[in-house]
Inverse folding.
């Protein structure tokens, strides 16, 4: 099969077909998404034949041998830590969701890592109805889902973006306030869904209410975070930072997100779409912050 591999220019190469385990289905990939983390932190020393990629949608061509999961011919969206950037993908039946016929596979391919991360991080914050919640990096893939999901949960969402241009559309997604960087935020917040790290994470922490929580989801800034816990007048008495990571199985959360998308209650926020031989163009756009939301590639 053909696959997009981690050569310096993300070229399409021929690699061995995946061999599914008894609890995995084999899907014919129709479209996959690129994520900032996959590009920014990709390895320069990947083993030959290694296929990266987290998010892919397509059609089951071989059902799981153990009888779990959907039948051949079923449209699905999948989440895993490798194997998405290829014509064929083997994926655990616990980490996929069925996609209704009326829903675009391209849109659902944008959901897995970004949508599930936003959903699970919001869940970790606990009840947010009526509470003020800050989303940093709100113009990115995870951020745009976090704004929508937090608003749906009843939070007063403050969306932080890097520039006025990047902030466009965030109010329409449910943000009650839009700021350019958390340092410009007035007042305190109960919770933070932080996708940036570095200086912005520190600035967000300083604006926590007592007992507030920062979910450290991403590190788009690619810089260390330095916090002065004794900074007078701006620190929470009992605030905390939690290192957030998504947890398996992913299937239930994926099905929930697909349901919201199918009902018109969630926008996939696809900011770039093109053929997979344009992968470097998409990657460059992601790294340069020229994509509002998600980048997806059609096979």
């Amino acid at each position: 099969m053909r696959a997009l591999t981690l050569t310096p220019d993300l070229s399409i190469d021929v690699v061995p077909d995946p061999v599914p385990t008894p609890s995995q289905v084999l899907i014919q990939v129709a479209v996959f998404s690129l994520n900032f983390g996959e590009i920014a932190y990709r390895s320069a020393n990947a083993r030959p034949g290694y296929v990266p990629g987290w998010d892919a949608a397509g059609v089951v061509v071989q059902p799981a041998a153990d009888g779990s999961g959907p039948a051949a011919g079923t449209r699905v969206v999948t989440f895993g830590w490798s194997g998405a950037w290829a014509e064929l993908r083997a994926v655990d039946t616990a980490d996929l969701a069925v996609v209704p016929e009326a829903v675009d596979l391209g849109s659902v391919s944008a959901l897995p890592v970004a949508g599930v991360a936003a959903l699970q991080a919001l869940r970790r914050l606990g009840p947010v109805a009526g509470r003020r919640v800050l989303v940093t990096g709100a113009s990115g893939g995870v951020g745009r889902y976090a704004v929508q999901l937090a608003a749906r949960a009843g939070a007063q969402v403050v969306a932080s973006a890097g520039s006025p241009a990047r902030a466009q559309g965030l109010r329409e997604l449910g943000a009650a306030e839009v700021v350019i960087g958390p340092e410009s935020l007035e007042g305190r917040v109960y919770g933070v869904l932080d996708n940036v790290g570095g200086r912005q994470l520190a600035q967000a922490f300083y604006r926590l209410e007592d007992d507030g929580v920062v979910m450290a989801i991403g590190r788009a800034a690619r810089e260390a975070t330095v916090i002065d816990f004794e900074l007078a007048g701006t620190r929470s008495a009992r605030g905390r930072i939690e290192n957030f990571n998504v947890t398996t199985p992913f299937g239930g959360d994926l099905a929930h997100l697909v349901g919201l998308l199918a009902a018109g209650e969630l926008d996939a926020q696809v900011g770039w779409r093109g053929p997979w031989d344009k992968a470097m163009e998409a990657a460059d756009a992601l790294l340069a912050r020229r994509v509002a939301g998600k980048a997806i590639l059609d096979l």
Remarks:
- The longest strand covers residues 24-34.
- The mean pLDDT is 94.
- Helices lie at 36-40, 105-109, 112-125, 141-152, 198-205, 251-262, 279-287.
